[in-house]
Amino acid sequence: MPKRIMLGALYVVASLFLANASAFAARTPSPPGAEEYIIWPADGTVIHGGKLWVRMGLRNMGVCPKGVNIPNTGHHHLLIDTDLPPLDQEIPSDRNHLHFGAGETDARIELSPGKHTLQLLLGDYNHVPHDPPVYSKKITIIVK
């Protein structure tokens, strides 16, 4: 392979690496003592019928809509029956990762009968977890 093509390819690879590294390095900081938690339901709650309200809590930070870049704020994401996603990337948006980008602090959800896990993860204005990440304890509920 000619030297010029090889150097060009190396330049492209290095540029992509640096662009990705800087994107990860630019995560939004969270303040000391920030805590996200599920107000309701409590761990172990038995729900009769699949519809329920989830109430979301946050300490030492504020809630604001997606796209709003204000220090020490973010918006809730509810993780259902899944583990935490990679904490240095945008939070997925699917049936297991619900986004509350309008700044909601409670949500009506519907679950099928059975055992389910719920966990909250705070995202910044770009849906990326803060640094350090702010997330709740994972709870288990049963729907009958």
Automatic annotation (TrEMBL):
Q: Which residues form the DUF4399 domain?
A: 54-144
Q: Where is the signal peptide?
A: 1-25
Q: Which domain of life is it from?
A: Bacteria
Q: What keywords were assigned to this record?
A: Signal
Pfam families assigned to the protein according to its UniProt record, in alphabetical order: DUF4399
Name of protein: DUF4399 domain-containing protein
| Organism whose genome encodes this protein | Paraburkholderia gardini
Q: What is the lineage of its organism?
A: Bacteria, Pseudomonadati, Pseudomonadota, Betaproteobacteria, Burkholderiales
